[in-house]
Write a structure and sequence with these properties.
Length: 596
């Protein structure tokens, strides 16, 4: 859960397809307002004995406890509260579900009977325990906790065919992990393109903040919504336009025949924290609130913002504007919006001011944030060693006469995992002869920086997500409006030309960023301290399904020791999956794609 809390001023919040990193510089107290400035004398005392657990309040959000605060580097230390927060998620399937906008969705997969799933909310340092029960008709499932590093708990990462076998219908699994990070994120199934059918939900881990606020409005997911099932979309070509855009699971139908607008409530002259998460399968947005500025305090493919309610008591549109290029996703809803109403406003009237046109981003996400807890990648290691390049290509193969299959390949190989024998099972057995299509990249060394150039040889942008780590974004090529025309061919990374412009000293770091169309991206992360198999993949579910992923197998020699009960846990759940798969000779759930 890459966590970068930043103190930059913005008017537009960029929210590309897909998901708070490390914290960023605390603004000058003079910018906080008179009331907050009076309390700023507390800040130098952070971390000293005597600070109570309740030190986090409206004017000093930087404090958390006597030991932990906004300056704590949670990749190295974190609180352990001894509290376990328990949640139950039941996954069900409805062939024709009347969705939030009044229209029927085919093949809906729901959590606890609704969409999105329930909020998982905890405090920094709590243990989270989630029981996932599969009530789907024939599909296996799994659950991934997006952005959580899962330090020494790779088995809880929830990737079918990599860290576990799928949970079969009628069975359940308990995931248990420590919230070593804080901020905003989400959870979703991680098997084929399944999450696009509705298996998603928000996560809020309370912790310190780099900016004061009065009210936390909570997580506000924004997502594309398709009336057809994910299995019938995006194969073999690009996904069609979404039928609607939902805000916290709500919106009116584009044709006005059903549903209602999602609403947020502001209190005049108060600062409100809003946790924006894009849980879309394909669409990207520029988010704005008419007449209001946003201060970004946390950024990844989730954006936490603080908004001062300093306008007249009224209602205002919260707009999610799509890019003009369909390569960033398109929708049949031309003006997706929710409503922000001040207390005392007449909520029977819709807002009238639609606001100024949004800034066109062409899928480009924000990479100028400066993390407060600094990381510097050694430039000499990049310059003096061979840097690995991952080439992303699109391939269409004829699998049967007249039937084609789209494959997204990395270095010529589209990933294809084995549900019945996940990567971790190979490792605990001491078998390191992996199938080529597992796309395993071994990282055996302790504490070594790993540099990667990802070269996109296709015109499609890809939101690339890394499990188990945050990565430093050293640089990337430009984004263009129409890559088929400009440049019309790949922009190839040139170390001699592009190398001097890379940023090694505390650049933005995230767990997700966009690989430009026909362009390149250079990232670095410090491998060696989190044993496990961590996937690095495009977060568009159909691209995952079609193979756009690799696995970084990190410190395989330590996996058994940091997870001592791994083998019996794996074997028991994989036996459950095998029993289910072997009961039906026809086996209705045959794997027809990458599996992840």
């Amino acid at each position: 859960m890459s966590r970068t809390m930043v103190s930059i001023w913005v008017y537009i919040c960029r929210l590309p397809a897909g998901f708070p990193t490390i914290m960023c510089e605390i603004p000058d107290p003079g910018d906080w307002g008179d009331a907050a400035a009076q309390l700023c004398g507390l800040l130098p005392l952070l971390g000293f004995v005597g600070a109570a657990p309740s030190c986090n309040h409206e004017c000093n959000r930087a404090c958390w406890t006597s030991r932990f605060n906004v300056n704590t580097d949670y990749e190295n230390e974190w609180p352990v509260t001894g509290v376990t927060r328990k949640f139950d998620l039941e996954i069900t399937e409805v062939d024709e579900w009347v969705g939030p906008d009044g229209h029927i969705k085919k093949g809906a997969m729901l959590i606890n009977g609704g969409y999105p799933g329930p909020l998982i909310k905890a405090d920094w340092g709590d243990r989270i325990e989630v029981t996932v029960t599969n009530r789907l008709k024939v599909n296996g499932t799994s659950m991934h906790w997006h952005g959580f590093h899962q330090l020494n708990s790779n088995s809880q990462d929830g990737v079918a065919g990599v860290t576990e076998c799928p949970i079969p219908p009628g069975d359940s699994r308990i995931y248990s992990f420590l919230a070593t990070q804080h901020g905003t994120s989400w959870y979703h199934s991680h098997i084929s393109s399944q999450y696009a059918n509705g298996i998603v939900g928000p996560i809020q881990i309370n912790g310190p903040s780099s900016y004061p606020y009065d009210t936390d409005l909570g997580v506000f997911p924004i997502s594309d919504w398709y009336y057809d099932s994910a299995e019938h979309i995006g194969v073999p070509g690009s996904p069609p336009p979404s039928n609607n855009i939902l805000f916290n699971g709500m919106n009116v139908a584009p044709n006005g025949t059903g549903g209602e607008y999602a609403r947020l409530k502001f209190t005049k002259n108060k600062r409100h924290r809003l946790r924006l998460v894009n849980t879309s399968a394909d669409n990207t947005f520029v988010v704005s609130i008419v007449g209001h500025n946003m201060t970004v305090i946390e950024t990844d493919f989730r954006y936490d913002v603080v908004i001062k309610a300093d306008q007249e008591v009224d209602s205002y549109w919260l707009n999610a504007t799509l890019s003009s290029t369909p390569l960033c996703g398109a929708s049949l809803n031309p003006h997706p919006a929710a409503i922000v109403s001040y207390e005392g406003a007449d909520e029977t009237r819709l807002p009238t001011n639609i606001g100024l046109p949004a800034i066109e981003q062409f899928c480009e996400d924000e990479v100028t944030a400066k993390p407060l807890t600094s990381r510097t990648a050694p430039k000499a290691d990049f310059t003096n060693t061979k840097v690995d390049t991952l080439a992303v290509t699109l391939d269409v193969k004829e699998v049967n006469k007249g039937i084609s299959k789209v494959l997204w390949a990395v270095d010529g190989s589209a990933i294809d995992v084995q549900w019945e024998k996940p990567t971790l099972e190979y490792v605990v057995e001491g078998n390191f002869t992996f199938p080529r299509q597992a796309n395993i990249i071994k990282l055996p060394e302790a504490a070594k920086w790993s540099f990667w150039v990802i070269q996109n040889n296709s015109p499609a942008p890809h939101p690339m997500h890394l499990h188990g780590h945050d990565f430093l974004i050293l640089g990337r090529s430009r984004f263009v409006a129409n890559p088929l025309v400009d440049p019309g061919r790949p922009i190839v990374f040139d170390p001699a030309v592009d190398g001097p412009h890379l940023k090694f000293d505390n650049p933005t770091r995230r767990d997700t960023t966009v690989l430009p169309p026909f362009g390149w991206l250079v990232i670095a992360f410090e491998a060696g301290h989190n044993p496990g198999s961590w996937v690095f993949h495009c977060h568009i579910p159909w691209h995952m399904s079609q193979g756009l992923s690799v696995q970084f197998l990190e410190r395989a020699d330590l996996i058994n020791s940091v997870m001592p009960n791994l083998m019996p846990e794996l074997r028991m759940k994989c036996d459950d999956w095998g029993d289910y798969a072997n009961k039906d000779p026809g086996f209705k759930m045959r794997k027809i794609d990458s599996g992840i």
